[in-house]
Amino acid sequence: MPAHFPLPSTLAFLLGASFLCVIPGFAEAQQNAPEAVQSATQTRKLVLSCAESRARMGQFLDLHYVFRTFDNEISRRTFKKLFEGFDPGKNYFLASDLASFKAYEEKVDDLVARADCRFLDEVAAVYRKRVDERNTYAFSLLAKPFAFTAAEEMPVGKSDWAASDSELNERWRKRLKFQILNLKDAADGGEAKARERLKKRYEQSRKAFAEQTSDDVYNTLINAFALALDPHSTHFLPADQEDFNIRLGNQLEGIGATLQEIDGYITVQAIVPGGAAARDGRLKASDKIIAVDSGDGSGPTDVIDMDLSKAVRLIRGKKGTLVKLVVLRKSETGNERISLNIIRDAVKLTASEAKGEAIDVSGKRIGVIRLPNFYTDFACRMRPGSDCNGASYHVLRELKKLQANPKLDGVILDLRNNGGGDLQESIRLSGLFIPEGTVVQTVDRRRITRTQQDQDPSVQYAGPLVVMINKYSASASEIVAGALQDYGRAVIVGDGHSYGKATVQVVQDIPGTDGRKSDGAIKVTQSKFYRPSGRTNQEKGVASDIQVPSLLEVYDVGEKENDFVLRADTIKPAPDFRPLQSIASLIPTLTKQSAERVAKSKEFAELREQMEKSKKEKDKATVSLKEDSKKDVDKKKEREQEEKEAREAANENVVVRKSDIQLQEAAQILVDAIELTKSKANWTSSASR
Questions:
Q1: Which are the contacts of 548, defined by CB distance < 8 A and separation ≥ 6?
Q2: 572 pLDDT tier (thresholds 50, 70, 90)
Q3: Which pLDDT does position 264 carry in this prediction?
Q4: Percentage of residues in the chain having pLDDT higher than 90
Q5: Alpha carbon distance 372, 350 (integer Å)
Q6: 59 and 28 Cβ atoms separated by less than 8 Å
Q7: Is 90 exceeded by the pLDDT of residue 84?
């Protein structure tokens, strides 16, 4: 088994709610064994065998934070994830198929230990049979027109495995009708041309499926095992690793969105600040992308149940080119289809810098600093003594601008929708508001605790401070918000809690063989991070001191929504941890005053109505299969035009918008806090040791 490697702090970073450390140059000894699964077509040299798959699972266990052995519990989880890995949308396997393999549920571990993957061959054979049956049925349905006038709906949420062929046939009839409806809207030529396009998609899919190698099958098994450990551990084949490395780079060309596959749908996880989608403003987190016209002249392509990497390649493209998307989005009236045209552009993770703005609130001058992510200049960081332009540097720049005016009464640090980024930037940024001390603690698989500290005793801003969070504030954002809450330096305002991810992943490269640069990589959860107080952000997130209503509160967002998450726990406080002050006595009064304002607010009353409508529709996991009437189309166009005008009117450099009622209320809370502390210890003097 491979040796344990400590995390080199210079390479540790958090990106898109993931905490990563790259450890290149490590190889598990290659083991040879007969292939249990072979494809008829093998045009490339293979990477994986059953024995090599076993070895890579051993690497996960040698590095994982919790698990040391492949036992019956992990076997049961792997069994579940294996079928979901083959068939994430549950469109091929029958419930009886899973039942027929039930005997393997607690034996996967034993079979893998013996490098016996014949069970995998059996599962793959049934899957191939089901795919062939479904394709045959699909082509029979696509041979004749569909009717789109009936009031019919299709489920789009989580589903169980179909109990019978007839149930699966009905799913496929609705599925194909929905796919035709999407392509019919997106393409000229009407329904007949849309059916031809979908036939072509299924023909290409059948061909691609026939060309799959044993690497693809073994990769499904290894990833089922990885996801049985926790939601963030992953195995990469060489091609997947290349895509992953592109996403890690600070320069991409595309739409600027993080995508993931959920239940067979390509789902938008987050919008990258500074990217084309962020500037366009229409694509939203949680949108399901159901069709893509890449602009190569072949027209729109249905991407439901498409492999994520293939869908990403369709969406990604050169700067200045057009990509057309059809997305499925939850709305007040249910799920609706929306067509979006986005011009691809260079996506630079540092493109959207921290920005500050001063506003007047009830006679107080309040500075607002918005930070979209914790970016850094890695090349600069590798040069000792360099003053690098990262997130903390730019927040300090904005603080200095705001403090140039002597009447600065308070500051709001807006970390909403900030999915994370560089660890060191989060530590330095926290240090702007506190004297030297522990910002975050990490615990590795050996249960060794290390502290990450701000070592600068100076405080750049010691006055009244509010930190804003929402359910999409993750990782580095949670480190900052949690530390400032622990030290009593800030009132945390926003959604009820942040995302809740406090696990640390490492990416381990596997050196190539047979002329390849790499034989893939594993990303494995190796550590957890904790707050200075010893509390954790895992699962629960950072809880707001004062919750202000937002539409996001309606939806189930966060780490706890994933399968097999690592559980929340606590450790001892850091040895040097001492709260700077206690603001707990302020919270009841601030909460009461805020609640009274919100209750009287017309804007919040309208938001509450919208939230109630969304709550009623939240669990409605269906979409209409009826074609939009001319009236519906006209309404959509009118709404899209209004949204377009609103986007054009909005200046990207504006930090505070009047329509942002959550931020406006946070500013009022800060003013209340300033007034309450007039007769108590001054924030500036109390925020120092």
A1: 493, 494, 495, 594, 598, 662, 665, 666, 669
A2: very high
A3: 84
A4: 58
A5: 10
A6: yes
A7: yes
Find the range with the poorest average confidence among 266-275, 304-313, 586-595.
266-275
pLDDT of residue 347: 64
Q: DSSP labels for 484-542?
A: HHHTT--EEEESSB-----EEEEEEEEE--TT-SEEEEEEEEEEEEE-TTS-B-TTT-P
Half-sphere exposure of 581 (CA within 13 A, CB side): 23
Who contacts 572 (Cβ-Cβ below 8 Å, separation ≥6)? 449, 534
DSSP 334-381: EEEEEEEEEE-EEEETTSS--EEEEEEETTEEEEEEE---B---HHHH
3 state SS of 679: helix
CA of residue 524 relative to chain centroid, distance: 17
End-to-end CA distance of the chain: 48
Q: Please name which of 465, 470, 663 lies closest in space to residue 581, comparing C-alpha atoms.
A: 465
* Global confidence as pTM: 0.83
Contacts of 289 (CB under 8 A, 6+ apart): 259, 265, 266, 267, 268, 303, 311, 315, 325, 326, 327
Separation of alpha carbons 246 and 401, rounded Å = 35
Q: How far apart are CA 612 and CA 430, in angstroms?
A: 37
Sign of CA dihedral 191, 193, 199, 201: negative
pLDDT tens for residues 166-215? 999 999 999 999 999 888 865 566 888 899 989 998 998 888 888 889 99
Cα 282 to chain centroid, rounded:
18
What is the distance between the alpha carbons of residues 178 and 419, in angstroms, rounded to a whole number?
33
Angle at which helices 72-86 and 214-229 cross, to 10°:
130
pLDDT band at 14 (very low <50, low <70, confident <90, very high): very low
